[in-house]
Amino acid sequence: MGEVTVVVLPGDGIGPEVIAQARRAVDAVAPAAGLSITWREELMGGCSIDAHGTALTDEVLAACKSADAVLLGAVGGPKWDTTDPDKPRPEQGLLGLRAGLGLFANLRPVKPLEALYDASPLRRDRIAGTDLLVVRELTGGIYFGKRGREGDMAYDTCAYSREEIARVAEVAFRAAAGRRGKVTSVDKANVLESSRLWREVVTELGASHPDIELEHILVDNAAMQLVSRPSDFDVIVTENMFGDILSDEAAMITGSIGMLPSASLGSGTAGLYEPVHGSAPDIAGKGWANPMATVLSAAMMLRHSFGAEEAAAKLEHAVETALAQGALGRDLGGQMGTQEISDRLLALL
Ligand code: NAD
User: Fold this and answer.
1) Residue ranges, the chain, pLDDT below 70
2) Where are the domains of the chain?
3) Ligand 1, closest atom to CA 72?
4) Which protein residue's CA is at the shortest distance from atom 34 of ligand 1?
5) Is any ligand 1 atom within 6 A of the Cβ of residue 188?
6) Are 48 and 55 in contact (CB under 8 A)?
7) Residue 277 Cβ contacting ligand 1 at under 6 Å
8) What is the pTM of this model?
9) Among 84, 143, 170, 262, which residue's CB has the most CB atoms within a 10 Å radius?
10) CATH code for 121-254?
């Protein structure tokens, strides 16, 4: 893809620690892929509140909009925790980015590596062979609907349009085409009207993807199936709140939050890439953060935004090999720190 600009938002807590290592890893594989990356570092989250009084400035949002991709660490921490609705909060930066960049699909791959099977709370025979992708709708549904209070009552509204459902479902069908060819759509169509529209639209779209197997399951059943037969899933597509919950449940199959990457995509190739974990204030500054989730997020960036499949696979393979050779962080019951894990990855790359 040639010359590209990536805005990096290290954020707070362990964010800057893991981002620095992901940049090192990407810089090690980019030249061979013909990529010349200009990194542009900006403030977002608590650090931006300290500097500018807001979690995301207009200038930073504009920089992200004109970039080819955005790589994010994590935001938040006790310093900025507040229940005062008038005070700025770090996660407002995340919501502002998703809305501003039109990122309506969140992709979270879950593929436990053999070296980590014993770190999973599930039995080895249950998780063996699991390789699934959760595609979560990110900008609609109950988190964005009308809400309010009336007297002693409070309400939140879940609304979806045909277009909102179709565009995220299309992402899921396309992803399945490059994988095992199966989409599981999760809804609550026996109760919710928005779910009945969801099922209707996904079924219609499925007809234009005859090579993809499509199944519909109810969200309560999905929650059970995810822990009883995770290896049967390929691509799971679902609305915002169900996806929020199911993707965290699916994440635990791998046994460590320090291993999970994510991508948030809109209609173009620009996207936002970030580890699933937060800013881990409990270990920030100690040099213990596992950088692998951020390295794997950077691999997703190379693949989805820059089409650099081989470079992405090199990063993923390095992570897999390092783990198999025992490069385990404290989150995985090992002793290795951030720098040591990163050095091991660089040596393999
Ligand atoms: P967290 O993911 O930050 O931490 C949960 C636990 O996992 C902690 O014990 C932490 O030490 C550990 N952990 C997380 N990432 C790790 C890594 N890479 N290596 C080793 N251990 C790791 O979740 P939390 O404690 O609920 O939240 C802490 C802060 O992060 C809060 O302010 C929260 O709002 C914020 N947060 C931000 C994001 C984001 O930026 N996208 C996501 C979740 C939470």
Assistant:
1) 1
2) 1-102+261-349, 121-254
3) 40
4) 76
5) no
6) yes
7) yes
8) 0.91
9) 262
10) 3.40.718.10
Write out the catalytic residue numbers: 143, 188, 220, 244, 248
What integer pLDDT is reported at residue 100 of this predicted model?
92
The confidence score (pLDDT) of residue 18 equals 98
Is the CB of 93 inside a 6 Å radius of any atom of ligand 1?
no
Kindly state the tokens that stand for 94.
């995340």
Q: What's the pLDDT score for residue 295?
A: 98
- Quick: pLDDT tens for 191-201: 999 999 999 99
Q: What local confidence, expressed as pLDDT, does residue 251 receive?
A: 85
Ligand 1 center–CA 233 separation, angstroms? 27
Report d(CA 168, CA 166) in Å as an integer.
6
Among protein residues, the one whose CA lies closest to atom 13 of ligand 1: 280
Pocket perturbation via mutation, ligand 1, pick of 94, 97, 279, 288 by most ligand atoms within 8 A of CB: 279
Residue having the nearest C-alpha atom to atom 30 of ligand 1: 278
Topology of domain 1-102+261-349 in CATH is Isopropylmalate Dehydrogenase (3.40.718)
Question: Does the Cβ of 10 fall within 6 Å of ligand 1?
Answer: no
Residue with tokens 């595609």, as numbered in its chain: 135
Q: Say yes or no: do domains 1-102+261-349 and 121-254 share a fold.
A: yes
Of all protein residues, the one whose alpha carbon is nearest to atom 40 of ligand 1 is: 74
Going from the Cα of 44 to the center of ligand 1, the distance in angstroms, rounded, reads 16
Please give the number of the atom of ligand 1 that sits closest to the Cα of 292.
Answer: 18
Token digits of residue 240: 């915002």
